Amino acid sequence: MSVWDDLQGQAPVVAQLKQAAQGETGLTHAWLFTGPPGSGRSNAAKAFAAALNCEQDDVTQRGCGVCTACHTILGETHSDVTFVRTEKVTITIDEARELVSKAGDRPATGRWRIIVVEDADRMAERTTNVLLKAIEEPTPRTIWMLCAPSPADVLVTIRSRCRPVSLRLPPAADVADLLVRRDGVDRQLAERAARAAQSHIGIARRLARDADARERRLETVRIPLGLRGVTAAVMMAEKLVKIATEEANSSNDERDAAEKIALLASLGAPESGTLPPSMRSQVKQLEDDQKRRAKRSITDSLDRTLTDLLSFYRDVLIIQLGNAVELVNVELKGELEEYAGRSTPETTLARMDAINKARVRITTTNVAPLLAVESMATSLIQQ
After folding, report:
1. Angle at the Cα of 86 (from 84 to 90), degrees rounded to 5?
2. Which segments show compositional bias classed as Basic and acidic residues (predicted)?
């Protein structure tokens, strides 16, 4: 199994990265991987890192997926490859300084010291400036790989010093093939999950594996069918925020408890009684980090919930314009056609714009999510 196997529908990108990995001469010291959520930009960076440090002597076989270097890099345990992702709102300036320090180390076992920043768009300008000199004048044998949704999400001073790698969302059929081949998902369920996820590989895998997730998504998509009046809009907003919160908490609660148990065990904490002050401070730091992670989880989950809601109006617009492409929510085709007949394409576009504005407010400002969703919901009321 090659390290490139997960990059479904990305043949031009794979060819570009393979060529770079096969010849060290002229290899760029900084790369910027961009693409919409679900396009696999972080997977592409990870595969490239594995290929660069692959142990195969034959350069055409680098990225074999079977050598120790490939296994440890794909498992994120290789000593020379650092993966950076944040579960907070932003990457802090102290974290950026640690990266610069680590980038100055020579590789211990591999050919390259590689820093993969998966959330480069989550750095403030002053944080990004900390990385600028390290990227502009890197130490020998060091390669930076930054990942972001689009080039515009990274400061121009940074992106001008990086070689661009642009990814696109793979076709739904390719995502379904991956779920069948790698995860053993039933073909019909895989196709349904890939279509509902709009080709987002991670979301498609979750939908294919989790019946509750599929049910929550369908519940979200059906909400506009009963949206009449302000009262219904307020109730819809509460329901959407509740769905997103439950979705986030379902994955956070167990993890938070396990992290606290592991921390107490590592500190040698007593099984009962009051913790010493030094231990209490570390537990408090963990709890603060978990609260910040929970806030981002809910924000990300709500953004995904609104994306699912957006797919309803996307399908309505497709029907209103003559069914030029396949619907995302095929199982609701009859209800979608009835809804489409009661409005115009202009109205549908306005409703889609209201959802996108709410997504921007929730992910980029400190507005209370419920207030943003309530404001959006009143714009979606059927006349």
Report:
1. 120
2. 285-297
Cβ neighbour number for residue 160 with a 10 Å cutoff? 11
Q: How many CB atoms lie within 10 A of CB 237?
A: 23
The tokens of 141 are what? 């044998």
pLDDT of 310 reads 93
pTM of this structure? 0.73
Task: Show the DSSP H helices in the chain as ranges.
Answer: 11-22, 41-52, 68-74, 93-103, 125-136, 156-159, 172-183, 187-196, 201-209, 211-222, 230-267, 277-320, 333-340, 345-364, 369-378
Structural tokens at position 255: 């993890």
| pLDDT at position 251 | 65
List the Cα angle 117/119/122 in 5-degree steps.
125
pLDDT exceeds 80 at position 203: yes
How does DSSP assign 343-354, residue by residue? Answer: S-HHHHHHHHHH
Closest residue by Cα to residue 67 from 83, 51, 46, 44 = 51
User: Where is 113: in which H helix or E strand?
Assistant: strand 113-117
DSSP notation for 259-294? HHHHHHHHHT--SSSPPPHHHHHHHHHHHHHHHHHH
Q: Hey, is 30 helix, strand or coil?
A: strand
Strands 81-84 and 163-166 turn out to be unpaired
